[in-house]
């Protein structure tokens, strides 16, 4: 299990390095593992037409996204209740989850006030950078 976590963490660091660059394909080979990162270029017209459709789908909902790649946890400890539950009101800046990466527990905080509409990932699931973890509805 440790080897898998180390591989996931290394992959996250590689993706962070490649993100924002012109690199389209990267192959990293190590002892017993090969990581291939490949990105396809989106046509400018397709990217532009998809963005407004997502925004208009539910203008009152906002996603709480993963601050980095790692393992998602809804609870501060296995024997404790979750930080938040569906239907609960949260304030901007309130901690709603944890993402563990490189043996560090990183807080996930709400970017705005709202009501938790849904949690999109399971406890203990590996998440990607900026992956939507939960949806917050508008206040009032």
Could you provide a short overview of the structure?
With about 140 residues, this protein is α+β, with helices and mostly antiparallel strands. It has helices at about 1-20, 45-55, and strands spanning about 25-30, 35-40, 60-65, 70-75, 90, 95-100, 105-110, 115-120, 125, 130-135.
Question: Total strand count, please?
Answer: 10
For the biggest sheet, the summary is:
4 strands, antiparallel
Task: Please count the helical segments.
Answer: 2
Provide the helix percentage.
10-25%
Q: Could you name the ranges where pLDDT drops below 50 across 5 or more consecutive residues?
A: 42-57
Strand content: 35-45%
Write down the Rg.
17 Å
Task: Compute the separation of the termini in Å.
Answer: 44 Å
Describe the global form.
Answer: globular
Order of SSEs: HEEHEEEEEEEE
- What structural category do the secondary elements indicate? alpha+beta
Mean pLDDT: 79
Spatial order of the strands forming the largest sheet: 3-10-8-5
């Amino acid at each position: 299990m440790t080897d898998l976590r180390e591989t996931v963490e290394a992959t996250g660091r590689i993706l962070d390095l490649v993100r924002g660059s012109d690199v389209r394909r990267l192959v990293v080979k190590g002892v017993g593992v090969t990581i291939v990162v490949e990105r396809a270029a989106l046509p400018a017209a397709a990217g532009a037409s998809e963005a407004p459709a997502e925004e208009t789908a539910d203008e009152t909902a906002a996603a709480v996204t993963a601050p980095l790649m790692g393992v998602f946890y809804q609870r501060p400890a296995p024997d404790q209740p979750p930080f938040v539950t569906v239907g609960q009101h949260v304030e901007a800046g309130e901690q709603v989850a944890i993402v563990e990466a490189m043996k560090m527990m990183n807080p996930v905080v709400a970017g705005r006030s709202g009501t938790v509409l849904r949690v999109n990932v399971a406890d203990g699931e590996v998440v990607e950078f900026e992956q939507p973890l939960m949806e917050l509805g508008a206040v009032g």
